[in-house]
Structures are given as C-alpha cells and as structure tokens.
Amino acid sequence: xxxxxxxxxPVVVVTGMGxxxxxxxxxxxxxxxxxxxxxxxxxxKRFPTDGLKTKVAGAIDFxxxxxxxxxxxxxxxxxxxxxxxxxxxxxxxxxxxxxxxxLAVAPIELEWPQREALARAxxxxxxxxxxxxxxxxxxxxxxDFHERFVFGSVGHHLADTFGTQxxxxxxxxxxxxxxxxxxxxxxxxxxxxxxxxxxxxxxxSVSPESLIRxxxxxxxxxxxxxxxxAVKPFAKNRDGFVMAEGAGALVLESxxxxxxxxxxxxxxxxxxxxxxxxxxxxxxxxxxxxxxxxIRNAIADAGLAPEDIDYINAHGxxxxxxxxxxxxxxxxxxxERVKSIPISSNKSMIGHTLSAAGAVExxxxxxxxxxxxxxxxINYKVPDPSIPLDVVPNTARDAKVTHVLSNSFGFGGQxxxxxMAREPA
Amino acid sequence: MAEQRRExxxxxxxxxxxxxxxxxxxxxxxNEAKPSADTQTFAPCVVHPIVAIDFDKQIPKKGDQRQMExxxxxxxxxxxxxxxxxxxxxNAELAGxxxxxxxxxxxxxxxxxxxAVLSGLPKAADRDSFLxxxxxxxxxxTLFLAQLSNLxxxxxxxxxxxxGSSRTFMGEESxxxxxVRIALARIQAGQSDITLVGGAHNGERKDxxxxxxxxxxxxxxxxxxxWERAPRGGGFALASLGAFLVLESRExxxxxxxxxxxxxxxVLADSSKRRPGDVxxxxxxxxxxxxxxxxxxxxxxxxxxxxxxxxxxxxxERKFLAAHPGLPVRATGTHIGHGLEPQFSMNIALAAVAxxxxxxxxxxxxxxxxxxxxxxxxxxxxxxxxxWRGEGLALVEAVD
Lengths: 425, 400
Fold this sequence. Notes:
The structure holds two protein chains of two kinds.
Chain A lengths: L11 E10 L2 E2 L1 H9 L6 E2 L12 E2 L12 H20 L11 E5 L6 H11 L7 H8 L5 H7 L3 H10 L6 E4 L4 H15 L4 E8 L4 H9 L29 E9 H6 L6 E8 L14 H13 L9 E3 L6 H15 L8 E2 L2 H4 L6 H15 L1 E2 L22 E2 L4 E8 L3 E8 L4
Parallel strand pairs in A: 5-6, 5-7, 10-11, 10-14
Antiparallel strand pairs in A: 1-2, 1-8, 1-9, 3-4, 7-8, 9-15, 12-13, 14-15
Helix pairs in contact in A: 2-6, 3-4, 7-13, 10-11
Chain B lengths: L7 E10 L2 E2 L1 H10 L14 E2 L13 H5 L3 H16 L6 H5 L2 E5 L7 H10 L6 H12 L4 H5 L3 H10 L6 E4 L1 H17 L5 E8 L4 H9 L23 E2 L1 E9 H6 L6 E9 L7 H16 L7 E5 L7 H10 L6 E3 L1 H4 L6 H15 L21 E7 L5 E7 L3
Parallel strand pairs in B: 3-7, 4-5, 4-6, 10-11, 10-12
Antiparallel strand pairs in B: 1-2, 1-8, 1-9, 6-8, 9-13, 12-13
C-alpha cells in the first residue's frame, strides 16, 4: 500500500544532498565549519572595492570556471552540489537522472566585460552608443554571448549535463527562490507526475554592479572590519546582510520509490507554505500577516500544529527589518512557546546566498535533523530586547529536533516556508 | 493510480500587443491579415512596438507606475485586463487566494548610464575605480527593482492584490510554456483552484536587441511573414506585448458564476539538445502524446503556431506541420512579433479567442504553409518552439 501523508498524498523524502558555500565544498566541510561557528565572510578580492561602502562578501573564489561570469559560476557551483547530491542518492546513471530539474538561479544579463568587448569591437572612438554595440554584436564574433547570457542558459546546460527529464524549469522568487525550487519538486511528486526530482539553487552575484545595486537600497552591512563579524542576525547592532555565493542541491523522491530501491532516507519534506505580500516592493507588511500566513500554511500543509515545531532555521539575513519582522511573526505563530524554540541563522556564517539560500538552508536543516545538533547564530554579542528569542548564540548546541521550519523571504513580497523532518519511524 | 484530473477552463484573457488591446481588437486585426512592423526605429532590426496604452486604467496610482519599467507596466496592465475579463478584478477575497505563475526575463538597463560608462572606461586612469564610481553615482536605486525578474509578480501583488502564491519562471520561450504547464497541472491535480498565468515583454530595447543579435537571431532590414524568412536566413522580430490567462477548475468557475472562453486540455513540454532534426522529432513525440490523450478531429482543428522565424527552429517546425497536412496553420508571430516569455500565453489566448468564435482567422502567408479553413473550429493546437531551446504544445478546445 502506498505511503501517504495525512492529506493522502505521496510522502516526499530526500535521498541525496550537496552544498557549496563560502564555508567550503560539500556537506562534511560545511557542517564542520557551521558547527564550529566559523564565518565564510571575507574582504572582497575578486574586484577592487574602491569607493564602495561594503567591502565584504561570502564570495567563492576557490572554484573558478574557465571563463568567469556570474552564470558560469552559478553553473559550476550547481554542478558541484548536484554531483554530491546525485552521488549520495545513487539514483540514475551517469548523465541520466529519472526526473525533472527545478533550478533557482540568479537572474542573468550580459556583464561589463562583455559590453566592453563589444564596445572595443565596434571601433567607436569617443561616445559609445548601443547602436555601436548592436552593430558589433552582429559581426558573428560574439555568438557565445547569446548562449551564456540568456536566462535559460544555466538550466539547460545542467539539464544536458545531468540528463534530467523534460523541460528544465529556471525560477526566481528573489531570496526565496531556493525554497520555491524544492516546493515545485514536492508538488510534482505529490501530483504523481514523477517519482523523483532534482531541486537545485545557485547564485553567484558578487560583482561590482550587483553589490552596488543592493548597496543603493541600503540593504548591505557596512561592517567591513573584521569581515567575519559583518553579519549579525537578531543582534541589536545588526546593520544589513552580506552577499554570498553558493549552491544547494537535493534529490527528492517519493518515499515508496526510495524504499523500493533501498535508498538511504536523509529526511522528509513534510510541507511547504507560501503567501505573497502586497504591501511594498522591498518591505514586509507591518502587521506581519503574509509571513504569519506563510508559516501557518506550511505547518498546515505538513499536517502539523505549531507545537510540533522544535527548531526554526531562520531567514535571518541580519537586516534591521527582516529580523524584527521574522521574530515578531514567529511570536505570533508560536505564542509564548516561541522563547523556548531555538531559532538560528546560517547566514550569520555563510552570508546571504540570495537565490540559493532556501536550498542551502534546507540542506543544513536536514543535517541539523540528522546530527541532532543546531548550528549557532554567530556574532550575537549585543542582544536586541525587542527580539527576545533563543537564537542559539555563538555556539552550536545538541538538541532534540524533530520538525524544522525553514523560512525564506524575498523582495517582491515573496514568502516561502518549508517543514522538514527525519525519516518516519 | 490514475486519479481523476479536473477539467480546466480559461475564464479570463488579458492581452495587449502591437495589434491593440483585448481579444476583440486582436481578432479583428488578425482577420484583416495586413501584418506590419517597425523597420525604422531600431533599424536595421525589425520590431513590433506596443500600441499606446492608458496605464491609468489598470494601474491607478502614478506612484506605482513610476516604480515600474515598461515591461512591468505592460504586464501589470495585461494582468488587470485578465482579472477584469474573468470577473475577478477587485475581488480581494478571490485575489488573496489566487495563485500566480509569471514567465519573465529581466528589466531593461539604463542605456544612458551604460553608454556613458562605456565611453568613459577607455579613458579612465583606473578602470575598476571608474566603474565603481560611475555606478554608485549614476544608477537609480529603484532601477534594480524594475529589473528583477520576480518584480512583475511583485507589482501584480501590489496593484491587483493577487497573493495566494507567486512564482516567476525564467528562461525565454520555455519559461512561458512551463508556466502554463505547471499552472494547468496544479489545477488539474487540485493543488490550485484558480491561477493567473502569463507574462510581459518589452521588445523596444536596445540591450535585448544586442543580446539576440550576438546570437544572430534577429530579423533585419525588411519585414516578412514568419514562414517567408528562411530563404534570407530567418530571424525574429522582437515584440512588446503582455499576455495573461486566468485558469480555473470547472467547478470553481461554475461556483462563482464565471463562464469559459475555452478549455485548456493539455500542455506538454520538452527540451531537445537541438541537433539537426531534434525539433521536428520532439514536436512529433509531443504530438503523439497529446493526440493520444485527446483525439484531434482534423476537420475542426487548427494549429496556432508560435514559430518565431528564427532558423533552423522554424524550418524544423514547418517539417513537423507538413507531416500533419490536414491541419490549417496560423503563425501569430507574423502579426505580433516575438515576445519570448509571454508568447505561449499569448498564443493560447488567441487560440481560445478563435475557439470561442468557432472559426479560424485569415491566413497571412504566401509561402504555402497557411491556407483557408472552411469548417468550424473546435480544437486548436498551440506550438511553442524556442529560438534556442524548448519545445511545447498545448491543446485548447471550445466549451459547449
């Protein structure tokens, strides 16, 4: 008899995971550094930061694609995470995966080095116009720009490399993208469309223009010294997030399919909730209703009650606004008990991997369940009395963890929450 | 364990393009069969500019309009039209639980800033410092929000209150196919009751023309219908357009007294590697699946082709169509140009309008692909073949 959840849908489990972040490559290295409370944030070396207010990031410079660009890095990080995930799951063969790809990826556009190459090729001497660039683009010498910088580039390349089935879906829900990728996989398996899905999220946005874009929105920390102390989630002196790079990959399978092939079950994706916010392009509704509704939707989708949640993997970006809202909304959902629920921010160590964060943090949430140990919120030196939560300050902690809530919120009113648990007994 | 899949209706259509605004304006222009395009403004590139739009009608706050770049304004406007046509506009309770899947690229760059930076870079003493300094001082802080892919969805949430869920798919034409495919699958399976799906595109953009020109995909110099471009190497004419559908389970539509424009019976997609013959083969395989599940009555069916004009994809699609000679074909790209992400939603909308009228619109092609259709129209198969990647088919059917 098919294994079903409380709503009669197939139970969806995780059988393989991979991760690359500023803390290193792979689950083992990341887990060791996360539980040691180490920071992956460094002074930016990739480009000069003269004149910029923020000079730190969780950039990944220990992996470099042949022709560096944001999509090329996104693709390489994703490949590393997928290889680890598929290898762990043992599903499929080389270059063949028996399910679709759901990829959260940073938006893509031509970058300055390409524009400069076109400008040089145009022969325009003084004022360079887009007409000059278009003329140079038509020379046929820049054909590779098209394939590299269309939005589908990374997704189609990964689908080719790993042999996923059907049309690969590339998606963006801003900083909730990683969770949305998992949600799409979860829904596809629940529908019975597939027995397996490859859910991946990747981001490589540490470039001058991206940094400046976030900086102009006053979203970034300017605590440049020491770099490792820049992200201060839930602390009173928090002053913004720190951009970071990385990728997370999860192999999702129906529980029955995984059991039938004798796969090791790493955890269960019990539920997912979503609710968009119509208040403002970058700010949450002050009453917190969309975030509260999102978390409640996730708990209900998992067939649980708020009492069942015993750890929260926070969105916890370290911006004044996010952490205040997240704390307030958790208090609304969990009531007085919120003070006894550990809530910690992986971003305090990794930085904010933007499109990748939801998947990276899902991988870490599942490792938290496996090891029954909670990674800390580091750089928590000045408590914020308006957020009276147990943020697992500065040091990892052993704890009984049965159901994890992982939150992801993004610009554009995007809210997604996931609920994960260990294998059903 | 084949569970009963729910029937899905198209209950709202919001479309705007160079042909005008709304289903009837499009129907009228398609039947006129006098396609044209702008060959001057972006010469040598051929572009289909959008009609003049009174944005106030769907985006009442000027402050909201100011926060958007044209692609977002077009999309938010078209989404409003779709909600209005579905009888869902201003219904906060319904919008609050309505799902949304958007197919989007990104917003345009500030062409003035880019040109000034590129002009200054070769003369700068220090390239990197110059770039940092110019961008820090010249980029508008809010421009980023007008460029982010998911901010069309964000604007629709703000302006129209659609907040049940919000997902944005990226990836040119296939994002558009997948958005409708997933929206349909979710409703069929009971994961959603009602979904707003679609997208918008601004083709009057030099930064985009630059990208597609680098790949050699653009139609240049002279306008010709889609099927007549291959002898000169092919190419698509970039379009500005917005296209949204309200998809809804039959029960949900009936319960709120909404009537169908047409039924959306199937959406299938795949992604071939584009070796020679791949597009033809993939379309044929998808066709077998489609026709296997829903028999096609060729005397009352037609193909609404999303052929872009880009080669070799368009010639390969033509081969596939030639293998089904019983079906009359219309390529809407001839009339409206190519808007990438929202193109598939647009073509489903146009197919639904034709099915609602019970007849096909006039041919507009001298190459022999498009011919008159004498019988009534009950079924329309919509194709969506990406200029670089992605193949899709949909089946739209008249509702009795």
